[in-house]
Amino acid sequence: MSLREVSIIKKNYWPTADSQTLEQATSGIDTERLSDLESIITTQYSNINGIVVVRNGCIAYEEYYNGFGVKGTHHVTSVTKSILSALIGIAIDQGYINHVHQKVLDFFPEYVPESTNSQKQEITVRHLLTMTAPYPFEDWREPLDVMCMQSDWVKYILDILGEQGSIGAFKYSTAGTHLLSAIITRTTGKSARQFANEYLFNPIGMKEIPSYNMNSFGFDDLFGKDVRGWVEDPSRNSTGGFGLTLNPRDMARFGCLYLNRGMWDNNQIISESWIDESTTLTPNNYGYLWWLREEDGIYAYSAIGDGGNVICCIPKKGLVIAIASQFIVNARDRWALIKESIIPALMD
What structural domains and CATH numbers belong to the chain? Predict the structure, then answer.
């Protein structure tokens, strides 16, 4: 059986609304091997505020740092993108969006391009999901500060979409995912936050996310410790690539939903086909706004955000790891912590 076949075996488990926990000794975790995890985190990953490890549907390990606790919420930065991916899948399941090959400009009929670039006309929802739409900025040098100073973020993004580069080449863009949020609002009549509360967060027992009204869009407004709920742009679109605040247990719930291929308490929240499409390994190691990896016989897909915010799903191990962190520049890669300190503690 291939790794991919192993990864899509359906599991008949899910956490209950009360986030059932089991003693570590019965959850498939070797507690002795995890004994050094806390010291490793405090000395080498000091900006981690909370970690939840779920094994076979039950919380096997949970710790908080830097004054945070179970109910504390954290700006999960680009983990927001994977939430947007789920919302696009739900919108397609419900018929609001026809399919991923719909042209992006079809959702914005009032937009008049400033250039005659025909490439802009060919970009689809799938290109935004897979980060294969072209933009004029250099790789990994996206000018988000420029976007955040605009009065109309969507028009600004549509203006730069398809300019320079070629369709199909991987180029990571937070602006592109903001268009997906706007598409959700255009098609459903609800902000991504409202749509998520109704069709994703509430059905799996996550806390309802409140709106977060802002008067300015400086760095601290967008990424600071006082951010709450889900940030909105000046036009009241939920930010698509960042700006969502979650607690680690709810991050883990979202990971468990994907691990169980969209099923929660006998309800299909997201279609199995969308889960499979979103997490199928690609040459870019990127699915539908999920980072993918296959290493040493382990296949994993992860929602990853700046500062070390991570929801890592390892289907073959029945494992979900949610890590919430304080935003810092160049945070240490969490995969090393997962690979060296958590996976070896599993009792297969």
Answer: 3-72+247-345 (3.40.710.10), 79-231 (3.40.710.10)
